[in-house]
Structure formats: C-alpha cells, structure tokens
Design the sequence.
C-alpha cells in the first residue's frame, strides 16, 4: 500500500488516502451523480443553456511540447487534435476545459535588413521592428484559430525575462482575436502548481519585457558591428564578436598563458580507507625540487590542537553551481547539462533550472521532510529556507522520489524517455537538496605542523565524523589521522605543474558568475558560441584558445574604439542596468539612447 501511495502521488500530489470508515460514500456518490445529471440535461436540451455556461474553455500556451504533455497527463488522458499548425491537447480541470499547446520558444525576432539593425531611431525614441521567425507562421495561425474557441488565453511561458517576452509577443498577436489574455507563472511542473497558477493569473510584467528588449537590442547592435568588422578583416563570414563572448575569450587566453608557466612541486599523497590528503611543497627551480625529493624520507607531524567542529550542509543548487558540479563530476558539457535539466523541468521532475536563487519554498521543505522522515528518520530533518524573498527558487526535486524510485517507475512504464544521464543529473540535484535540509554533522579536527627537511607548513585535518547528518546523502571529504614520524618513501612524487589550470566548462561558468557577466539563461550559449566559431577547442575537458581565437582577441584589443564595447567593464555595467530595468528603477529608452550614441561613434571609427 505504501508503494502504491507513493506511485499514485507522482500524478497527483494532492491525493490523500483516508480510512473507508471516515468517508460518507453515499453522500459522495450523490454529489457526483448530481454533477452528471446537470450535464446530461444541458446536452439533451431539457435545460436551455449552453455547455459553455458550465464549462469554461481556456487555452494554455507553454513553450515546449514536452511541458504541454506533462501538464495534460496530470488531469487524465488528453484528447489530441491538430488545429492550423499546432497540436492541441484537451483535458478537464474542474469546471475548466483546458486546451494546451506549445509555441516552440520565441515566435518573433528583430528584423535584420531595416532601420539600424532592426531598430527605428527617431529623436529619443528607439522602436524595435519585429518579424515572425521563419517557420513559425503556422504556429501563429493555429494559436489564433484556437483563441476563437475559448474565453481566456493563459500564457505559461518560462518564469524569466525570456519567457516574459515570449509570452508578451503571444499576447500581442492574439489580443485582436480575444480580449482576455493573461499571464500565469509556475516554477515547477506539478499538478498542484498548475492548478494554483490557473487560479491566480496576472498581467504581463512590462519591466521584464523591457529588460529583454534592452538585452536583445544591445546584443544586436554591438554584435553586428563587431562581427562585421571581424568578417571584413579576417575574410571569414562566420566570425562573430559578442559583448560577453569576447571578454570570456580573453579570460581563456590569459589562463592558457599562466598554464604554460610551470612550477616545480614535490607532492606527498596519503590514501587510507577512503580518506585522502596531498601535501605540495613548491620550489623555484627543478634542481632544488629534485634535491628535496631525493633527500625526503620521512615527515614529522606535530599536533597543535585537537577539537570538534559543527559543519552545516551546502546550499541547494543554483544554475552556476549545478553546471560546475555536473560538468566536473560527469564530464558533461554545459549545454548538455542545460538540455538535460530543461527536460527534467518539462517532465515535472525538478523546479525551474535557470535561477540565481537558493531560496527554498514551503512546498520544497515539505518534499524534503517527507523523504528524510521516511528514509532516514525525522531526527535528521532540519528545515532551511536559505535565500530570502523573491519569486525564484533553488533547483530541487518536485517530489520525494529518489533516483532509484524514478528508475523503477521507468522500468514499470510510468516514466518514459529518461536516460542514464537524466538519472545522474537528477540524483545530483536530489542529494544536494536533501542534504541542504538535514542536520549538520560534528567533525573531529586537528591543526598540525608538518616538518619535511627544511620545509614547514601548518594545516587542518578533518579526520572523522562524530555525529552523522547530511553526510548520509552527500559525501564529506576526510583526511588520514597523521601524527609523529611518517615514512613517505613510497608516497612522494616530483612534478612540474602549471601555475594555473586551464578552465573547464564548469569552472568558466563559475568565473562568469563571480565576475557578474552572463546570466543563468546565457552561460551555455556563450560557451557554445566560442566553440562553434573556432575560437576555443575542448581537449580532455579543458578549454584551449586556438590560433584564430588569439588573433581575433588581439586584433580587437588593438582597436581603441572597439575594445570598450567588448570589455568586461562594459558588459558588467550593461548587465547591472538591465537588472535595474527589470526592477523598474531605470528607463530602458534612456539606456538605449546612450548605447546608440556610443555605437554610432564606434561605427564611424571603423567604417
């Protein structure tokens, strides 16, 4: 029964099993029959009313067919039909006849061959000119056909600036055909979240739309001008120079220079019963390192202090921390991780994956409580909200189902399309989130002084876990308990190592986050562009600048009028202004005016 209860809740989190003695079955059956009789009377003509008075037809527009199917399946087996150029899934949700379809992302984009790179300029007015993206005409036709059949259109695109702009465009295209177009928002694809969102629609947030317009126009103006210059200079029509792409390329080039500078190290490594420690002793030249290596036989480890320390769990994942850990643990590319996370979100398995927030909602805390209580014991549960306020939440599972449960549901046919990589990423998200809601651990630690010939260093060893907690689901690194004279004959190694390691995709995302360049929605795109343009190659998981990449960067660096537009400072300043536009604290027209004047000067300088 417990297994059935858990499996059924996959489809409906609101379901509650009650003892039969607590239910008045006759009363429930009577209520159901009354509802059926009313519909029968309307259909037979006995009651002169249209079914529309009792059933409210609503069109729900999402971005992807996967999400549309997931939502439809929460409310029974949907009826499917094709209308115009779109597939529509139809289900009953209470007294609402819900028609669900997908826009397949953006349906409009800036024109390329009109005005100033798609923007009409008139005094202090900057009016973007949009056109239908090629191939999306039938989607618009289909949306308009369905809109004629319903009372209300609910736009449920992703809860970020891109999603707001996609939704706003849909609203603008449908409003001549149906006056009631509203926005709904949910951060997880679950039955409960969908029902709650349908009951609380809102207006479109025009500040978010303006911020997206600003970003798109800035990318277009700067990108087109710099790309045109590069294509003319290098006679390669595929080159591009985005305002984020170029400073990030500069970091990769600088990191490679450091990588080529070697330092000489004698490493002493200890590995005992899953505990690990490496001590590195650095030297200015190879000869002194070699002398130290040959003479080193033992280490002297003196204990300075022994103590216990409480350690709290790490916070749940945000986009950047998920990308870093997944790419480094599983050697997945950043675009691959984002693609897998997108599918997990659309299938209703995790919350929205493009987020800077570590906040945990009450719903999330209850998900953790249920799993921890059942699997480990209530004493391990310690609720934490982490971040404060805001609409966005951390990346977390939507239900108290671990990866093994998902695997068994997949084998039973309840879930389809899940691959080994989906399960790996889900397990990473699940364990990190559950750990974030568990009690701290008590560690045994000691501060020691290590003497190796004429070298000394002090360090802290974490040797044991005295009181268990979040380590039940999330690994904690421990060190061997060293003391006294330690023989290191078979544990030492002479190495020449880089002054700094090359970036991986994950560490590059971490750097973007740290330097406040890029956004959760753009990290993957930035890295993809660098690889596609041939500015960077990836070898054994590390990013290496190519000859072309270095030539492009050095060329732009040499152009005084160009470099400010693709500099780190310019990009960071623009990102901060976009944030203020989102919050309604800055006028986006004023920012576009300043940007237009700067880009116009740049255009004259390079013409």
Sequence:
């Amino acid at each position: 029964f417990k297994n059935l209860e858990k499996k059924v809740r996959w489809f409906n989190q609101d379901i509650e099993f009650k003892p039969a003695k607590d239910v008045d079955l006759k009363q429930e059956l009577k209520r159901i029959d009354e509802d059926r009789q009313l519909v029968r009377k309307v259909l037979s003509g006995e009651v002169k009313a249209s079914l529309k008075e009792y059933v409210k037809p609503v069109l729900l527009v999402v971005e992807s067919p996967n999400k549309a199917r997931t939502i439809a399946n929460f409310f029974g087996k949907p009826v499917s039909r094709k209308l115009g150029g779109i597939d529509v899934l139809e289900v009953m949700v209470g007294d609402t006849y819900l028609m669900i379809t997908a826009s397949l992302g953006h349906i409009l984009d800036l024109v390329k061959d009109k005005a100033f790179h798609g923007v009409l300029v008139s005094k202090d007015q900057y009016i973007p000119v949009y056109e239908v993206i090629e191939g999306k005409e039938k989607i618009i036709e289909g949306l308009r056909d369905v809109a004629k059949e319903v009372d209300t259109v609910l736009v449920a695109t992703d809860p970020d600036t891109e999603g707001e702009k996609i939704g706003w465009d849909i609203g603008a295209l449908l409003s001549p055909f149906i006056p009631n177009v509203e926005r709904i928002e949910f951060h997880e694809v679950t039955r409960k979240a969908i029902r709650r969102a349908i009951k609380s629609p809102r207006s479109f947030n025009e500040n978010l739309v303006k911020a997206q317009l600003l970003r798109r126009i800035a990318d277009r103006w700067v990108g087109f001008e710099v790309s045109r210059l590069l294509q003319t200079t290098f006679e390669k029509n595929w080159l591009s120079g985005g305002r984020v792409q170029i400073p990030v390329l500069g970091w990769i080039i600088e990191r490679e220079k450091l990588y080529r500078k070697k330092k000489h190290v004698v490493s002493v490594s200890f590995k005992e019963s899953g505990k690990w420690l490496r001590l590195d002793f650095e030297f200015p030249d190879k000869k002194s390192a070699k002398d130290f290596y040959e003479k080193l036989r033992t280490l002297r480890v003196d204990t300075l202090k022994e103590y216990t320390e409480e350690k709290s769990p790490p916070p749940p994942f945000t986009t950047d921390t998920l990308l870093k850990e997944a790419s480094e643990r599983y050697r997945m590319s950043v675009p691959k991780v984002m693609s897998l996370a997108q599918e997990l979100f659309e299938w209703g398995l995790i919350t929205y994956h493009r987020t800077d927030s570590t906040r945990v909602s009450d719903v999330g805390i209850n998900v953790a409580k249920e799993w921890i209580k059942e699997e480990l014991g209530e004493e391990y549960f310690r609720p934490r909200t982490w971040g404060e306020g805001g609409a966005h939440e951390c990346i977390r599972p939507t239900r108290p189902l671990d990866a093994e449960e998902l695997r068994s549901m997949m084998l039973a046919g309840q879930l389809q399309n899940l691959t080994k990589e989906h399960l790996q990423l889900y397990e990473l998200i699940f364990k990190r989130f559950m750990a974030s809601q568990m009690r701290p651990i008590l560690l045994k630690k000691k501060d020691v002084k290590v003497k190796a010939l004429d070298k000394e260093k002090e360090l802290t060893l974490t040797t044991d876990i005295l009181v268990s907690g979040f380590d039940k689901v999330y690994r904690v690194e421990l060190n061997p308990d060293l003391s006294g004279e330690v023989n290191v004959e078979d544990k030492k190694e002479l190495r020449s190592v880089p002054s700094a390691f090359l970036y991986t995709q994950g560490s590059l995302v971490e750097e973007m986050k740290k330097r406040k360049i890029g956004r959760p929605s753009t990290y993957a795109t930035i890295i993809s562009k660098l690889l596609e343009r041939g500015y960077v190659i990836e070898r054994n998981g590390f990013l290496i600048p190519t000859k072309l990449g270095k030539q492009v960067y050095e060329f732009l660096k040499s152009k005084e009028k160009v470099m400010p537009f693709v500099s780190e400072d310019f990009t960071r300043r623009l990102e901060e202004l976009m944030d203020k536009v989102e919050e309604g604290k800055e006028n986006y027209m004023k920012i576009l005016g300043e940007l237009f004047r700067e880009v116009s000067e740049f255009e004259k300088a390079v013409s």
